[in-house]
Design a protein that fits this description.
Elements: H1 2-40, H2 47-64, H3 68-84, E1 94-96, E2 99-101
Antiparallel strand pairs: 1-2
Helix pairs in contact: 1-2, 1-3, 2-3
Length: 104
């Protein structure tokens, strides 16, 4: 009888953990969608927008791989990038494949 109760407890814990994992994944997807909407409100050519969108794409990939914690961190980094806008080009600068460069 004790083994049956122990097995039942283990099964219930596994179900609860699985349900929590699904909730965490859904929360991550919802967070990415909300932050992506904020990023898309930024100007199209804004360099900080590009970095934020890249973090959000990576967040979804990490979540799909089962790493919800990494998803949360990347969403937080995207939020910071949108708020602070640390990546900006000066007037006349363009972004080429190697980083900011001034047009000739």
């Amino acid at each position: 009888m004790g083994r049956i109760l122990m097995l039942g407890a283990v099964v219930l814990m596994a179900i609860a953990h699985s349900a929590r994992a699904v909730d965490d994944r859904q929360a991550c997807v919802a967070s990415v969608a909300a932050v992506r909407a904020r990023a898309e409100a930024m100007p199209q050519g804004d360099l900080s927008r590009r970095f934020a969108e890249n973090d959000l794409d990576t967040a979804l990939a990490e979540m799909a791989a089962g790493d919800v914690d990494e998803c949360r961190e990347l969403v937080a980094r995207a939020i910071h990038t949108i708020r602070v806008r640390p990546y900006q080009l000066h007037p006349g600068e363009v972004l080429d494949g190697h980083g900011p460069a001034t047009p000739d």
